[in-house]
Amino acid sequence: MAQQRYQVGVCDWMVLKRQKLGEFELARQLGCDGIEMDMGPLGQREAFDNKMRNEADATLFKHTADSLGIEIGAVAMSGFYAQDLTKRDNYMALVNDCFDTMEKMGGARVAFLPLGGCGNDWATNKQKRAEVVRRLHDIGEAACARGVRVGIDTPLDAKGNLRLLKEIKSSGIGIFYKWQTIVENGWDICQDMQRLGAKNICAIHASNTDAVWLRNDKAIPLPAIRQTLDKMGWSGWLFVERSRDTTMVKNVKMNYGSNVRALKETFNAYPTPEVALDSAGRDADYVRNIIGRAEKATNELSITWTPSGENVRNIVANRYFKLNDIYAERDSIKKTNKELATALCDSRLYRSHFDFDADLSRYLKPHEVEKVKDVMTFNVVKVTYDAYCDMIPRLTNEEKQQILLWLKEGRELAIDAESSNKKHETFNKYKGRINNYLSRHGYDIQKEREQWEERVKARGGKL
């Protein structure tokens, strides 16, 4: 399959998966084409803490990436965000370690080298600048010899970067373009990229500082940027580094799922969900309402903006549609034959109930399927179970297991109930069964509840 003109990935160190095997599965879940793999921490070490020097690790990582269809689009030396390139006498050894890793990881063509550790004045301090330029020339020539390119991250605009590249005098050095830098300096991204030119941009860190998602960031005009890059004839990797929503900054899947999707929708066709939404012929407002209800489940799993999340959302929404159709048919038949209506309704509910579990299991693990069911039933299982355990602290493990078993049995029926009231009625029947069970085991439920209310009130709460 021909390589797509624009490819979208994430920085593994930013999604908390720096050189962790799970980065490839996470990238797949997020809908990425690939990842930007970091070389590992540097700090005061002599060398990067790089697992890929171990042949067995490198082979396993490459095999896992290939099996999941995830490319290593670039390899990053993010340690130089904090470490000064001009004070590392072994800088060529560090760079060659990066080149070796690129080769082991399938021949990534671009390395990322930030210059942040060189200080705030390296671009204006003549002596410091000269040393930066000299070392970058050496690095660039080494990159040419290895058939790769090093993209540097600078605080400069297009004019400043063009001047710097001219001083470096090596085609092995380009600019790893960063939208965040442009926005923070008040420059125009589209104009600046055009001035810099396509041949000088190795790859792009396609994000802003943490504040809001890309789709909500007015400083990042994605359609205009796409139009500009098309006009320039540029192609390559766009990696999400930041642009996390600060209200949920630690939620990796929601933040990066949203940003990857925004880029894919703009630059690179977002995959059509495997599960179609059964919305044809239904009222638009009703469909929006049902989608909103279904997304409560995917939000709980933090997968709303991912390809699997879209499939799960459609499965849940389709279940709501199916239930609506079943009960609408029952009500229609009930006008002429009440017994037949009830029998047909029960039959259709039973036949379709297990399909729902099977459909969810294609995209979710068992504990995630449980979460979906809990969201659809207002989390009554957990709330009720916790309440019983708090009300009667001396419950045995066997009694706790029986309570949980019945609540989950009730949940299976409540999922198919036609309204929230009917769902709660279902659970109330099971609560009655549980109370009878506990009474047979010697508990005075009324007395236990009264004492529980007093304890809750004493700690400042209420039932």
How would you characterize this protein structure?
By secondary structure, the chain is of the alpha/beta class. The protein contains 17 helices and 8 strands. The protein has an 8-stranded parallel barrel with strand order 1-2-3-4-5-6-7-8, surrounded by 5 helices. β2, α2 and β3 form a beta-alpha-beta unit. α3 runs parallel beside α4, α5 packs parallel to α7 (189-196) and α14 runs antiparallel to α15.
In the predicted model, the low-confidence regions spanning at least 5 consecutive residues are none
Strand elements, count: 8
What profile does the largest beta sheet have?
A: 8 strands, parallel, barrel
Would you list the SSEs in sequence order as H and E?
EHEHEHEHEHEHHEHEHHHHHHHHH
Mean pLDDT across residues? 96
Head-to-tail CA distance between termini: 60 Å
Helix run count: 17
Question: Which overall shape is indicated by the principal axes computed on the Cα atoms?
Answer: elongated
Rg is 29 Å
Q: Class by helix and strand content?
A: alpha/beta
**In what order do the strands lie side by side in the largest sheet?**
1-2-3-4-5-6-7-8
Proportion of residues in helical segments:
55-70%
Beta-strand content bin: 5-15%
